[in-house]
Every structure is written in C-alpha cells, then in structure tokens.
UniProtKB/TrEMBL annotation:
Residues 1-19 form the signal peptide. It comes from Uliginosibacterium aquaticum. Keywords: Signal. This is DUF3828 domain-containing protein. It comes from the Bacteria.
Length: 154
C-alpha cells in the first residue's frame, strides 16, 4: 500500500508540469519526431538534404532557430572542419532514441523536456516561442537553450 501511495504521489506531482503546456508539448514532440525521421532518412540514404535545408523547409522552426543553427554549425566547423562539434546540435547528443520521444515535463513557460521512449535517461530540452498567433520551435538541444535549462544526459 505504501508503494502505491508513493507512486500516486509521484504521478500527481508530475501532472501540473505536464498539463501546463499541452500546446507546447505537442509542438515539441511533432518537431522532434520529424527531426528523428529526417535523421533516419539521411542515415538510410533516402535523403541528402542538409539540416539547414530541413530547418528552412520546416514551418515549425522559427527564424531564430534557423539562425542559431547556422551560427553554431559555422563555429563548430571553424574549430574542426571535419567533425564540427562532434555531436548533433538539436539533440545535444551523438545518438538518439530509435523509438522517438515522449513528454517528460514542462519545467518553465516556453520550455519542454522530452525523454526517449524506451530510453528515459535520454532527454532533450525544446524551447517554444509565440510569433504572432503561431507557436514555433525556437530552440532545441544546445541551440537557444541556456546551459542551466539544457537536459542532462545520463
């Protein structure tokens, strides 16, 4: 009985964070699932589209995210012309969960933390912004995410 009450208390503690951002969470999941599908297509050879072009074609990406990607990517290639940063800027990692993402929590207004489905230790922070009436993705991984808000990989 005590385990049940502890589990219930933990579940209830997470509800406000998850319920507080349904629109932002849905957008973050849609964007990041799309990004994983893009990565899979590149890996399988069915797409040779660079990330910059994918972001430009993605209506969910804000102009600020596109600009941040280009600047950070250029900085990485200056440091190491072959490998750049050596990790995926949008994922803040080298690998990613094959089963996709699910909502972990909404820690603050405009921020959504996702975790790997089947790999809960993997997490990524996504930032949303309202541009006019439209909600867009303005940050993910290391892009436009302050270091203190970035997900910690275990």
């Amino acid at each position: 009985m005590q385990r049940f009450l502890s589990a219930l208390a933990c579940s209830l503690a997470l509800l406000p964070a998850q319920a507080a951002c349904p629109e932002e969470a849905a957008l973050a999941l849609r964007f990041m699932q799309g990004y994983l599908a893009y990565n899979d297509a590149v890996f399988l050879g069915s797409s040779s589209q660079p990330v910059e072009a994918w972001l430009d074609a993605n209506p969910l990406a804000s102009p600020g995210l596109r600009k941040a990607y280009r600047a950070k990517q250029a900085e990485g290639l200056q440091r190491d012309p072959e490998l750049g940063w050596g990790f995926d800027l949008l994922l803040d990692a080298q690998d990613y969960p094959e089963q996709g993402f699910e909502l972990r929590r909404c820690p603050a207004p405009g921020y959504v933390e996702l975790q790997g489905r089947g790999w809960p230790e993997f997490s990524v922070t996504v930032k949303t912004v309202r541009l006019g009436k439209a909600l867009r993705i303005d940050g993910a991984g290391v892009l436009n995410i302050p270091p203190a808000r970035r997900a910690r990989q275990h």
